[in-house]
TrEMBL record:
InterPro entries given in the database record: ATP-grasp (IPR011761), BC-like_N (IPR005481), Biotin_BS (IPR001882), Biotin_carboxylase_complex (IPR050856), Biotin_carboxylation_dom (IPR011764), Biotin_COase_C (IPR005482), Biotin_lipoyl (IPR000089), CPAse_ATP-bd (IPR005479)
Location of the Biotin carboxylation domain: 3-448
One annotated GO molecular function: acetyl-CoA carboxylase activity
Protein name: Acetyl-CoA carboxylase biotin carboxylase subunit
Superkingdom, natural source: Bacteria
Pfam families for the chain: Biotin_carb_C (PF02785), Biotin_carb_N (PF00289), Biotin_lipoyl (PF00364), CPSase_L_D2 (PF02786)
C-alpha cells in the first residue's frame, strides 16, 4: 500500500475540475498547476493550492515535465493525476514520477510504452488472441515492403502512424496507385506530430461502429470491464458524441468484447483505468483498434450507467488497494449520452474560436450533468484544445436521454463566443441517430457544407432582438434618472416614438423601427411589414414574448452596448446596431485615444506612428461576432503611438492607437 494525501492534478479545464471534485470529496488535498493564460481559471480557484508553471504555450507549461515535477515538490504533492491529454500517456513522465517518489495515478510506464505504439500493441494483442484487423505491423518500414504487404491485405487500406492518435498520420487509401503518396504524407505528419514516422497498415473496415470497452485493473491481478461505449459519431476521427451502452449491443456480443478487452489488459499486466477500442462491422465481427492508457474524455457515460466513480477507483488502485469489484457486480442500467461542446465555428470548417464568455448558465434538470471548467468573464484562449464543456444526460431509455440532451443544449445560456452547439443539436435530431444506426460515416453522410452554414436570422428574430435591445437601453437610462414617472415612460408629445435599428451581416441588412404602443406592446416595421410584439416578461438572461400572436422564449445577452446576442432553440444570432455605433463615434470625437469597441481580432492596421490622419479615416479593421468593423480616427492629428498589431486578439476597451490633435 502507498497512502497519500496531497494530489497534484497535472492538467487544466474541465478534467482538472472533475478530478478535483472527486478527490476533495474523498478528503484529499488538491493542487492545481496553471499557465499565464489560466491564472484565474476555475480549476485554479477550486484547488486547495496552486502553482504557476510558466507561459501560456503548452510546451512551456503543461507539457514541461520538469516544471510539473518542480511544482509537485514545492507544493508537497505525493501523487500526480494526469487527467487526459498532455502528459497522461507519456511513459517518460510516468517514470519520472516514480523516480521522484511520486505516485502516478495511472498505469505503469511499461504499459504506456507498449500500448502507445500501434505496431507493438497489435503484435501483443495478436499473441494474446485478441481479434485484430488484418494488416502489417512489422519493423521493416521500406516502401517496397509496405507496398508488397498491401497486396496481401487488399484494398482499401488504412495507413496509420504507429505512435499516433486522433486521426493524425492516418490515410484511407482506396487504390494501389495512391499508396506511395499516402505513405509519404502520413510519415511526414506522424514525424511532426509524434516524433516517429513508423507506420502500420490495416485493412480498411468501411462504415463500422467505433465501440470501446472500459477496463479496470488493480495491482493484485484483478481485471474487469465496465461495459462498452459507442463513439461512432466522429468528424475526422475525432469523437463528437459518445453513448453507453452501444445501441445495437447484445448480451452475447458484450460478453465476447468484454472478455477480449479484459484479456488485452491482463496480457500486459495493466493497472488502473484503460479503454480498449474496437471496430465493429455490420456482421457483428469486432477488431482491436488501440488501447488508451488513461481516463477517457467520455468516461461520464460509463459512470452514469454503472453508478461508479471512475476517478475514485483510480485513486484507490493507485494507493495499492484491491479493486473491490468482480465482474458479476457490474450492472448496466439505463442509457447515457455525451456531447463535446467546442468553441468552434462549424460554418468555417470547424475553425477554433476564441473570445470572452459573457454569460454561462448550464441547464439544470433530471438526468443532466455538465463537466466544465469555465465561468462567465473567462477568456477562451488560442493556446489549448477548444473543448469547453461536456454535456451528458441519463435516462431510463436511450430516447429519454436523447431528448434530455437536446433540451439541455437548447436551454443552456452561453454567450460571448461561437460554439458547435447548433451542430450538436442537429446531430442528435437526425433520424439515423435517433434510430441508433449511426456509423463512423454518419457525419459525412448526413451533413453537407451547406448544412453546416448558419442561416441568417428571420425578420421575426430581428424584430425580437430590436424590442429586447430597446427595452434594455430604456432600462439603463431609467436607472440613471433622478426621477421618472412610469406613466410617462414611452410617451411623447409629438406622437409615436420611433427608434431605428440597422442590423447587418455581410451584404445582408435588416432595417427596422420599434414603436412602443399605449398598451405596453411594440410595433416593429420592416418596410411594409408590421410585426406586433408583446414583451410578456424579461429577466437578465431570458425574455418571453408574443410575436404576431405566437409565444417565443429566448435567452439573450445585452452586456455590450448596442450589441445583442440571442439564442433560441440553441441557435445563436448576433445583432449589432450600426446606427448606434456611428452615433457613438461622433459623440466620442475629440478624444484621440482609440480603444477596441468589443472583443475580437484585428485583421489589418493601416497606420503607424508619425502618420497624419483626419477624423473618419480608417485606422484598422476589427473582426468580431463574424462581422468586420472599421476602427476610425475620431480627430484630426498625428498618430503618436500604435499598440495594435494585425492578427492580434483584443478585448473590449483595449488601447489600440493614440492620436495627437492637430494644432
Amino acid at each position: 500500500m502507498r497512502n497519500f494525501q496531497n494530489i497534484l492534478v497535472a492538467n487544466r479545464g474541465e478534467i482538472a475540475v472533475r478530478v478535483m471534485r472527486t478527490a476533495q470529496s474523498l478528503g484529499y488535498k488538491t493542487i492545481a498547476v496553471y499557465s499565464d493564460a489560466d491564472a484565474d481559471a476555475p480549476h485554479v480557484k477550486m484547488a486547495d493550492d496552486a502553482v504557476h508553471i510558466g507561459p501560456s504555450p503548452v510546451g512551456q507549461s503543461y507539457l514541461d515535465m520538469d516544471r510539473i515535477l518542480k511544482a509537485a515538490k514545492e507544493s508537497g504533492a505525493e501523487a500526480i493525476h494526469p487527467g487526459y491529454g498532455f502528459l497522461s500517456e507519456n511513459a517518460e513522465f510516468a517514470r519520472a514520477c516514480d523516480a521522484a517518489d511520486l505516485v502516478f495515478i495511472g498505469p505503469t510506464a511499461d504499459s504506456i510504452d507498449l500500448m502507445g505504439n500501434k505496431a507493438a500493441a497489435k503484435r501483443r494483442m495478436i499473441a494474446a488472441n485478441v481479434p485484430c484487423v488484418p494488416g502489417y505491423e512489422d519493423a521493416d518500414q521500406s516502401d517496397d515492403t509496405l507496398i508488397a504487404a498491401s497486396k496481401t491485405i487488399g484494398f482499401p487500406i488504412m495507413v496509420k502512424a504507429a505512435a499516433g492518435g486522433g486521426g493524425r498520420g492516418m490515410r484511407l487509401v482506396r487504390d494501389a496507385a495512391d499508396l506511395t503518396d499516402a505513405l509519404a504524407s502520413a510519415r511526414s505528419e506522424a514525424l511532426n506530430a509524434f516524433g516517429s514516422d513508423e507506420l502500420i497498415l490495416e485493412k480498411a473496415i468501411l462504415e463500422p461502429r467505433h465501440v470501446e470497452v472500459q477496463v479496470f485493473a488493480d495491482s493484485h491481478g484483478n481485471v474487469i470491464h465496465l461495459g462498452e461505449r459507442d463513439c461512432s459519431v466522429q468528424r475526422r476521427h475525432q469523437k463528437v458524441v459518445e453513448e453507453a451502452p452501444c445501441p445495437i449491443m447484445t448480451a452475447e456480443l458484450r460478453e465476447k468484447m468484454g472478455a477480449a478487452a479484459v484479456e488485452a489488459a491482463r496480457s500486459i499486466q495493466y493497472r488502473g483505468a484503460g479503454t480498449v477500442e474496437f471496430l465493429l462491422d455490420s456482421g457483428g465481427n469486432f477488431y482491436f483498434l488501440e488501447m488508451n492508457t488513461r481516463l477517457q474524455v467520455e468516461h461520464p457515460v460509463t459512470e452514469l450507467i454503472t453508478g461508479l466513480d471512475l476517478v475514485a477507483l483510480q485513486i484507490k488502485v493507485a494507493e495499492g488497494g484491491l479493486l473491490g469489484l468482480e465482474q458479476s457486480d457490474i450492472e448496466l442500467t439505463g442509457h447515457a449520452i455525451e456531447v463535446r461542446l467546442y468553441a468552434e465555428d462549424t460554418a468555417q470548417d470547424f475553425l477554433p474560436c476564441t473570445g470572452t464568455i459573457s454569460k454561462w448558465i448550464p441547464a439544470a434538470g433530471a438526468g443532466v450533468r455538465f463537466d466544465s471548467g469555465i465561468e462567465a468573464g473567462q477568456d477562451i484562449s488560442p493556446f489549448y484544445d477548444p473543448m469547453i464543456a461536456k454535456v451528458v444526460t441519463y435516462g431510463e431509455t436511450r430516447e429519454i436521454a436523447r431528448h434530455r440532451l437536446i433540451d439541455a443544449l437548447k436551454e443552456t445560456v452561453l454567450f460571448g463566443l461561437t460554439t458547435n452547439r447548433g451542430f450538436l443539436i442537429d446531430v442528435l435530431s437526425k433520424d439515423s441517430f435517433a434510430e441508433g444506426s449511426a456509423t463512423t460515416a454518419f457525419i459525412a453522410q448526413e451533413f453537407s457544407d451547406e448544412d453546416l452554414k448558419i442561416d441568417l436570422p428571420a425578420p421575426e428574430q430581428a424584430a425580437t432582438a430590436a424590442v429586447i435591445q430597446y427595452h434594455c437601453e430604456r432600462e439603463k437610462v431609467r436607472t440613471k434618472a433622478i426621477f421618472g414617472s412610469p406613466q410617462l415612460q414611452d410617451w411623447s408629445s409629438g406622437g409615436s416614438l420611433l427608434t431605428r435599428y440597422i442590423y447587418s451581416w455581410g451584404e445582408e441588412t435588416i432595417d427596422l423601427t420599434v414603436s412602443p404602443m399605449r398598451d405596453g406592446s411594440y410595433e416593429v416595421r420592416l418596410g411594409d411589414t408590421v410585426i406586433l410584439i408583446d414583451l410578456v416578461s424579461i429577466t437578465n438572461d431570458t425574455a418571453t414574448l408574443t410575436v404576431n400572436d405566437r409565444r417565443r422564449r429566448v435567452h439573450y445577452d445585452g452586456s455590450t452596448d448596442n450589441v445583442l446576442e440571442i439564442s433560441e432553440h440553441g441557435v445563436t444570432h448576433h445583432f449589432r446596431n450600426s446606427i448606434a455605433f456611428a452615433q457613438n463615434a461622433e459623440i466620442a470625437a475629440g478624444n484621440g485615444r482609440i480603444v477596441a469597441p468589443m472583443h475580437g481580432t484585428l485583421l489589418e492596421v493601416f497606420v503607424q506612428a508619425g502618420d497624419d490622419v483626419n477624423a473618419g479615416d480608417r485606422l484598422a479593421v476589427l473582426e468580431a461576432m463574424k462581422m468586420q468593423h472599421d476602427i476610425l480616427a475620431d480627430i484630426d492629428g498625428v498618430v503618436s503611438e500604435v499598440a495594435a498589431l494585425a492578427s492580434q486578439q483584443v478585448a473590449i476597451d483595449d488601447f489600440l492607437i493614440e492620436i495627437e490633435a492637430a494644432e
